Amino acid sequence: MAIPTPVNGQITDAKTPNGHRKLIAILRGVEPDEAAAMARALVAAGITMIEVPLNSPEPLKSIALMKEAVGKGALIGAGTVLTPQDVANVKAASGEFIVSPNCDVAVIAKTKELGMGSWPGVLTPTECFAAIKAGADGLKIFPASIIGADGIKAMRAVLPKDMPVYAVGGVGPNDFATYAKAGCDGFGLGSGIFKPGMRADDVSKAAVAYVAAHDGVFSGA
Fold this sequence. Notes:
The chain is of the alpha/beta class. The protein is 42% helix and 19% strand. It has a single domain (21-215), classed as Aldolase class I (TIM Barrel). The strands form two sheets. The protein has a nine-stranded parallel sheet. A two-stranded antiparallel ribbon has the order 1-2.
């Protein structure tokens, strides 16, 4: 089951053809006073899933401010979520999905208990199937550059076809076509789209480039 995703202000399914772009912007290090502007810039560029890692400054405040800024125009979630209490804190801050660097069944269970989207980090078939069994909505292959497109292709052959698989870590826009051919449904965008010190217009320019690369690969999806 995919995370419901806003398209033109409405909630639809993340796997809907020609719907939501299959991109998650990861804003590690974003500050609360710039959070709203960053979120607006991303949504305007066409990226409507935004992740604030919990090792950012005051991440819960940034999540709440982003959600207030964009409303139903985007899903705002948290990354680097390591404990069930973290999940509850994100929910209280209006977060809507949870991304982790690892596969922790307790974190997945709490995420689903609170009605949020679950994207655990996995790197092996064992972790993939453990995450699926625990109720994950999608799989974050991390760090994707370690196993590459060939490794993902091998795992994709045994994973459920309707389970979204996103490549995160070391995958740039020039790699989208290769990873999509290997079976990836989408991508997490890290330092290529945001680094501390960047302005909202810098993020906007980067987002436009990622969206163009995405559309070139998935326009017929």
